[in-house]
Amino acid sequence: MKQIILSLLIALALPAAAQNFDEYFEDNTLRLDYVFGGDSTSQYIQLCQLYKQPRWAGRRARLAETFLLGNAQINVFDSASGRLIYVHTFSTLFQEWLNETEATQLRRAFEASYNIPFPKKPIDIRITLTDNHNKVTTVMTHHVDPKDILIRPIGDNGIPYRYIVKSGDISQCVDLAIVAEGYTADQMDKFYRDCERAADAIFSHEPFKSMKDRFNVVAVGAVSNESGPSEPGRGIWHDTVLRSHYDTFYSDRYLTTSAVHRLFDLLSGVPFEHIIVLINTPRYGGGGIYNQWMCSSSDHATFKQVLVHEFGHSYAGLADEYNYGDNHVEWYPSDTEPWEPNITTLRDFDRKWKDLIKAGTPVPTSPTITDYNTARREMTTAQLNEKTQRVGVFEGAGYMARGAYRPAELCRMNVNEVDDFCPVCTRAIIAITDFYTGTVK
Ligand SMILES: [Zn+2]
């Protein structure tokens, strides 16, 4: 049955003829709030609430295109014709948790919120979760009538915001929102300064630097009652607007928020597409989930590097290019080509970065650095940065020492000591920016 559903989805997700945004959608946003729950053996999706928010900040072309599969998909169909009219893909903290031992012993629930353009006519929304074989594990379909009186209108919520970068109208640009977390009322000046630093971090790295005129960045000054995130491992709990904390899944550096519905509430007055939660703390930490959010601590020495790395996850769906050594978790099974653009299991390498490899480069490619800790002590930053630009197929990626491969020895998605994305990540960021801004290449 699952196989039939998957085949049906693939058939329906074939590139549709270019369609006019105005034919099916108005310039407003339909916000969908769900709860994802379950355990490692069975999962469910439940709808919580629908909202209507002014303006639509997302793409207005390539609407029915599945650009990256992600770990979950929303497919929107016109009810009358059955035609696929919009696709949104993403990953979830819930699915990360499903890999934890806790998920074999306990059923838990996670909040999720997504924006799609507001339909003019009734639609059917199919939401699917997929596993690391890219197979559908959970599916839920629901009907939405745009005239439903229970769709709650939302808008200006009184939370101040200001543009840090304003390159154009929201219909033309990628709209990033930076949301304050763990900043008290008298720390708001610091928040806006930190937002300037965050924007500087992103736009000092290529390829973002050359594409800055395609981005808007808006800072949303949500006030917390107490300063700094919670630190459960140190017994510290703070009353903050997004209840962020370290020790997510008991990993001390994993700093996240689970208050996703609340996060979207804070953004109800601001048109946005991508979210950076800027968390007021000097302690190292963060996280990034493709098309959900990225969280970054504001004052650690590696602030810029971590922020850009996590943004690579949340914005462009890039995978981690590092590994945990000999760890036996099969994050990326050998019978499946990962959907992330910057790693491969060699299952279907032809559709990855084969075209960027110089003729004669062996696959897999032998690294020139055998001990990274020694290299980082003995090599200059310029020497390390050189390693980001030689494209090959280096074993060790996606947390796995064996069986998963990365495009460069070093990359922004691998280690903090280098500045640059490798050519494969760079190409992926440019391509997804074209996709988000509706540019047909
Ligand atoms: Zn890379």
Q: Could you list some keywords that capture this structure?
A:
single chain; 441 residues; alpha/beta; Immunoglobulin-like; Collagenase (Catalytic Domain); 3 domains; 6-stranded mixed beta sheet; 4-stranded mixed beta sheet; 26% strand; disordered N terminus; binds zinc ion
Structural features, described:
The protein is of the alpha/beta class. The chain has three domains: about 1-155, Peptidase M64, N-terminal domain (Immunoglobulin-like), CATH 2.60.40.3250; about 160-315, Collagenase (Catalytic Domain) (3-Layer(aba) Sandwich); about 320-420, no CATH class. It is built from nine helices and 16 strands. The strands form four sheets. It has a six-stranded mixed β-sheet with strand order 9-11-10-12-14-13, covered by helices on one side. It has a four-stranded mixed β-sheet with strand order 5-1-2-8. The protein has a four-stranded antiparallel β-sheet with strand order 4-3-6-7, with helices on one face. Helix 4 packs across helix 6 (about 305-315). It starts with a helix and ends in a 5-residue tail after the last helix. The model is unreliable at about 1-15 (pLDDT under 50).
Number of DSSP strands?
16
N to C succession of SSEs: HHEEEEHEEEEEEHEHEEEHHHEEH
Overall average pLDDT: 93
Structural class: alpha/beta
Summed up, the domain count is 3
- Which fold does the CATH topology of the largest domain refer to? Collagenase (Catalytic Domain)
CATH top level of the largest domain is Alpha Beta
